[in-house]
Amino acid sequence: MSNASFVKQGLSGITAYVLAIAGALFFAFPIYWMASSSFKSEVDISAFPPIWSFGPTLDNYRQLFTELNAWDALINSALIVGMSTGIAMAAGTMAAYALARFEIKGKEVLAFEILSIRMLPPIVSVIPMFIIARQLGIFDTPWLLTAAYALSGLPFVVWVMRVFIQDIPQSIEEAAMIDGCSRFETFWRVTLPLLLPGLAATMVIVFMFAWNEFLLASMLTSQEAKTLPVIAANAIKPKAIAWGLASAAGVVMSLPVVVLVLLMQRYLVRGLTLGAVKG
Asked: According to the lineage, what is the superkingdom (predicted)?
């Protein structure tokens, strides 16, 4: 390799690293600004030009957890989103397996009907759900939002997991059944471990959709079952926005998702690309 080619290759590598670092800083800056603003006073936040060096304060977090009762909302969000994600993943994965492996008459139509639930705008269903919840006496309860979020995430799980299951060779399952496994044992011991990357990627996406959902949570709750997005919306005052309080709420809302992604990161890259060329 000539010196010119070596230098050109080195410059290309340096340029790629510089662009990657610049891109990472560009996307990380809003996160830094939100986190730093959560420790600023309202005077420091509204200062112009922006203040980079400041005395940190926990007043925003204190107001969030004492005045707005964010702790109860955090527990509600964890309970509701955890249960709804688990239900959607369990039911959706089994439905996807049936659609991918069994000969069901009209299964393409059935799959489309499942997907049509996802096409329905939430604003269309929230009023009927409100009326039904009032009549059944389940308004402002975690169970109502759990059912709503599970039904909302179910079509996504079915369609995504169906593709992942179709990518697994059917001969592997046939070999397990020849060795004496039942259909369920084959699914549990053979297919499910191979689906872990897809399950992780799908679960993270379903969890994030439910965790950040605001419309249903604001319309179907009053006091007892309020979630974090509803509490965070209280930072918007009639005449102004409490930026410090909103930033603190944003940090608290982001942490569970960040932790979940870090726990699942070993599966996410493969899971997000597995089945990408087949649909």
From this structure: Bacteria
Report cis status (omega within 30 of 0) of the bond before 169. Answer: no
> Where in the chain are the domains?
3-37, 59-273
Per the CB < 8 A criterion, the answer to whether 253 and 217 are in contact is no
Spatial CA neighbour of 215 closest among 89, 119, 129:
129
Q: What is the pLDDT along the chain (279 residues), one digit of tens a residue?
A: 556 666 667 777 788 888 999 999 998 898 888 888 888 888 888 888 888 888 888 888 998 888 888 899 999 999 999 999 999 999 999 999 988 888 888 888 888 888 788 788 888 888 888 999 999 889 989 999 999 999 989 999 998 898 888 888 888 888 888 888 888 888 888 888 888 888 888 999 999 999 999 999 988 988 888 899 988 887 777 777 888 888 899 899 999 888 888 887 777 666 555 544 444
State pTM to two decimals.
0.83
Q: Tokens 């420790």 appear where?
A: 39
CATH class of 59-273: mainly alpha
d(Cα 34, Cα 252) in Å, to the nearest integer?
11
Contact predicate 146/87, CB 8 Å: yes
- At CB < 8 A and 24+ separation, what contacts does 234-238 make? 234/68
The C-alpha atoms of residue 82 and residue 253 are separated, in whole angstroms, by 14
Q: How far apart are the first and last CA of the chain?
A: 44
- Any idea of the CA torsion for 8, 9, 14, 18, to the nearest 10 degrees? 90
